[in-house]
Amino acid sequence: MNTTPVRNDPEGILLVDKDKGPTSHDIVNKVRRLFGIKKVGHAGTLDPMATGLMIILVGRATKVSQYLMSLGKVYEGTLLLGIETDSQDAEGAVVAEKPVPVLEEEQVKSAMRAFLGDQYQTPPMFSAKKIQGQTLYKLARKGQTVEREPRVIHVSRFEMIRFMPPEIDFVVASSKGAYVRTIAHDLGNKLGCGGHLCKLRRTQVGDFDISRALTLEALASLTPTRLRRQLIPVAQAVPSHVL
Question: Quick check: is 207 catalytic?
Answer without folding.
Answer: no
